[in-house]
Amino acid sequence: MPELPEVEVSRQYLEATSLHQEVAEVDVRDAYVLKDVDPDELDAALRGRKLIGGRRHGKLLFVQTDGDPWLLLHFGMSGFLEYHEDPEETSPYPRVLFRFRGGAHLDFDNRRKLGQVRLVEGPEDYVRAKGLGPDALSKGLDRQGFVESLLGRRGTLKSALMNQEILAGVGNEFSDEILFQRRLHPRTKVASLDEKALGAVFDTLRTTLNSAIDARMQPEQLPSRFLLRHRSEGASCPRCEGDVARVEVSGRGAYYCPSCQGDAPVGEASAADGPS
DNA sequence: TTCCATGTTCCGCA
DNA sequence: TTGCGGAACATGGA
Hints:
Blueprint: H1 4-17, E1 23-28, H2 39-46, E2 51-57, E3 60-65, E4 70-74, E5 79-84, E6 94-100, E7 105-110, E8 116-120, H3 123-130, H4 143-150, H5 157-162, H6 172-181, H7 195-214, E9 245-249, E10 252-256, H8 258-261
Antiparallel strand pairs: 1-6, 2-3, 3-4, 4-8, 5-7, 6-7, 9-10
Helix pairs in contact: 1-7, 4-7, 6-7
The structure holds a DNA duplex.
C-alpha cells in the first residue's frame, strides 16, 4: 500500500520495531526485487550492521545504517513491512527478510514484485539522480512553488499530481482523493485552472495527506468525508450519496462522484461523439 | 476466464 | 525538443 501516507506510516513502523538491532542475516527469498545488488552483496553490506533511522522522500523509504550504504525500499504497488518476533512466522509474500540477532525479523513483503530493494549512497544523491521533485509534504515546498511547477502544463491535473518529477508522493488513489475534495472532475486539465484554484489544490493536497498519516492509513480512522473508503464503482459518495463512477485517465482507473465533480471535465465541451 | 490492481519505465506521437 | 498518454512489467484476487 504505497503512496506517501502509507510509506510514512511504514517509516514510523520501521522506527518503532527494527532500530538498533544487529542484522544477523539478509534472507533473500526472491532476488527479482533486488536492483543493482545481488543477494550476497546485500547480505555482506548489512550483516553486523544496525538500522538507525528511516527517511522518506515521496514513496521512497531510505533506511540509514551504522555503516556506509543506505538501504532503499520502494514498495511498488503491493508492498509493506511486517515485523515478526517469531523466526518461523512471515508475512504472506516475503521477498526479503532482514533477520536480527535475537530471532526477530523485518519482512519486505511484495506480492506483485514491482517493488525494489537496493543499496544507495544516500537519499539526496539518489533523489537527484532520479530527477524526483520535492516531497509533497516538504517544508521547502510552498503554495507558490507548487503553482509555478504546474503552470504551462498541457495535461490533466490528475497526471500532473502523479508526476513524481513535479511532486513526489502522490499516486493514483490520493490524486483521486484530492480531486474529490476539490470537486474537480478527474479529466480536468491543469490549463483550465487559474492560480487561485491551483493554490487551493495545494492546500487540499497537504491537508489530505496529513489527515491520512494522522489516521495511520487505518480505513476506519480515515475521515468519513474521504472518497478513499468508497473507492469502487457504484459505492455511495460520502458527500451526496450519489453513485461513485470509474473513468480511465492517463491509463489509470479514476474513481469520482459525477454528481459532486461533474459529468464532464471543467473547461471542456461535454462528450460529443458526433452523429454517425 | 477476464478484468483490475495503490508502482515505474519505455516508446511513439504531436 | 519536450511533454503527454498508453502499454508493459509480475502476480493474485474478485
